[in-house]
Design goal:
mainly beta; 115 residues
């Protein structure tokens, strides 16, 4: 059974930082492209960042320059380092594992940026 478990969310002040983790089990982690998405209240889910199986990365414009995506295949874990957080970054952050038609999602972790 495939499981993706996000952690590291919480409440932070504007300008602060958080590091999200996505721990995977039940899949050959190194063979999957991994992504972070977010969904703010009343808005559609949007892509934040992607990291491919070879470590190539892509970032959405909304957070480019403020986030870094990385993965540790030995630990079957993906990370999202978020800096200079803004109130508009408040959302539930989800991780996704994708390989062909195999598409798995975690339950999400809440990030709240508020003073």
């Amino acid at each position: 059974q495939v499981q993706l478990e996000e952690s590291g969310g919480g409440e932070v002040q504007p300008g602060g930082s958080l590091r999200l983790s996505c721990a995977a089990s039940g899949l050959r982690f190194s063979s999957y492209a991994m992504s972070w998405y977010r969904q703010a209240p009343g808005k559609e889910r949007e892509l934040v960042a992607v990291i491919g199986t070879t470590g190539t990365t892509n970032y959405a414009d909304s957070m480019k320059g403020r986030v870094t995506i990385s993965r540790d295949n030995a630990k079957k874990t993906m990370y999202l380092q978020m800096n200079s957080l803004k109130p508009e970054d408040t959302a539930v952050y989800y991780c996704e594992a994708l390989r062909g038609l195999a598409d798995y999602w975690g339950q999400g972790t809440q990030v709240t940026v508020s003073s």
